[in-house]
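Researcher: Re-running this chain for the archive, since the previous output was lost when a drive failed. Same request as before.
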Amino acid sequence: MPKHTITILEKLILGFGDAGKSAINEDFDQVLLDTVDHVLKMVFGEPTAKTIYQFLETRKGLRREMIPSHLEDFSSGLNMLFMSNAHLLEKLMIKHLCSKLQLELDQKQNLSFVDYVQELKSRKKHEESKVETK
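Model: Regenerated structure tokens:
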């Protein structure tokens, strides 16, 4: 096997370099989607959660799997649907996301939903990179 093929395989298997960063992003994105699902189903039940996803797709062109890369649109869609109560859902999602990621919830920060998710993603990447270097 050529040497560069082994290096690419090592990166994929061991999670180093760009391949490792991509895996971290995919893992985070999946945890975020699972969290959104969990909170919507917990608060509204599965049929209504499906209706919320349909609303987001119809009004915002946002399919469920697009949420991690289109957080602004997701938050905006929640605000369209739930108005002033959207922030309660977003806070609940942040709380559950912190729990799933095993990160402490810093309630002193006054961040938007989008900024909070980005902050958590950054903190998780930082933690993962510390683990990789050990």
